[in-house]
């Protein structure tokens, strides 16, 4: 009985960990249009915000040629690296996740929109 319970818990944890992979990239591309005034996903071009090209695996505040806030640079120095989990938390409420950052966007409150944008960014930022 204990083994069955532990297996169930393990499967629940695995399912939760892969939930981000279930985002819809096509929908995410539509949602990302809100971000395009400040960010480019598939080119090494900074705008009002840094280029997101090569985002996954990059430490926060380290995109060359962009003038980050001290708060964002400090998070990178502390080891914050962009992945599905950290990006989901940031996109939900950027000011709460990294107080003092310069991004004016209030965040994506709907979990499905965050998942979709992340799915899109995983594809677009790798190109």
TrEMBL record:
Keywords: Electron transport, Heme, Iron, Metal-binding, Signal, Transport. Coiled coil: none annotated. It comes from the Bacteria. InterPro entries: Cyt_c-like_dom, Cyt_c-like_dom_sf, Cyt_c_1A/1B. The keyword Flavoprotein does not apply. The keyword Membrane does not apply. Residues 1-21 form the signal peptide. Gene3D superfamilies: Cytochrome c-like domain. This is Cytochrome c family protein.
């Amino acid at each position: 009985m204990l083994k069955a319970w532990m297996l169930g818990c393990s499967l629940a944890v695995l399912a939760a960990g892969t939930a981000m992979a279930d985002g819809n990239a096509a929908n995410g591309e539509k949602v990302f249009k809100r971000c395009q005034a400040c960010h480019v996903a598939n080119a090494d071009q900074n705008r009002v915000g840094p280029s997101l090209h090569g985002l996954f695996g990059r430490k926060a505040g380290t995109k060359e040629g962009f003038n980050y806030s001290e708060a964002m640079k400090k998070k990178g120095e502390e080891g914050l690296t962009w992945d599905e989990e950290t990006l989901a938390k940031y996109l939900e409420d950027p000011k709460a996740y990294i107080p003092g950052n310069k991004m004016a966007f209030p965040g994506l409150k709907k979990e499905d929109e965050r998942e979709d944008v992340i799915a899109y960014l995983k594809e677009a930022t790798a190109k």
